[in-house]
């Protein structure tokens, strides 16, 4: 097992868009294993490569009875239905806020061997796919919160024991906000 340290809110790698994977090789397989082992060790539903300090478009997931990984993922909403529910992040430990997401999505990408993969997700799996893909775009779920909730979230983060006191960056999401204000 190769558990890696998770980068915390304020680390610039979390705000940097990740690069496409072009080599489906042993290093990619090692990254997927490290992501999996770290996600499992931390009890997360998903983990994206930038959270380990690696700027590649890869994430792992294990929620709602579905588990795996996606390389170079994209997703689309199946319909206009939304969900509003509690969301957290291993890079913002111990803190949770309600966040609006698409309820039903289809994600497409590749596995670590370069074979095409398609995942249909609803509820928690849909939330996970969107959350982890956001990480690959340098977006945190805080960016999707309404202004009042985001202000309260930032106050909680600044008071958190793990926060180093740096100036956090809030970023405009490149994806539809599904009713959430930025």
UniProtKB/TrEMBL annotation:
Is this entry keyworded Repeat? no
- Gene Ontology molecular functions: metal ion binding; peptide deformylase activity
Q: Which reaction does it catalyse?
A: N-terminal N-formyl-L-methionyl-[peptide] + H2O = N-terminal L-methionyl-[peptide] + formate
* Co-factor note (free text): Binds 1 Fe(2+) ion.
Question: Which residues hold Fe cation?
Answer: 89, 131, 135
Q: What is its cofactor?
A: Fe(2+)
Which ranges of the sequence are coiled-coil?
none
Q: Which domain of life is it from?
A: Bacteria
> What Pfam families does the annotation carry?
Pep_deformylase
Q: Which GO terms describe its biological process?
A: translation
Q: What is its EC number?
A: 3.5.1.88
Active site residues according to the UniProt entry = 132
Q: Which family does it belong to?
A: Belongs to the polypeptide deformylase family.
Task: Give a short account of what the protein does.
Answer: Removes the formyl group from the N-terminal Met of newly synthesized proteins. Requires at least a dipeptide for an efficient rate of reaction. N-terminal L-methionine is a prerequisite for activity but the enzyme has broad specificity at other positions.
Protein's name in the database:
Peptide deformylase
Identify the species of origin: Actinophytocola algeriensis
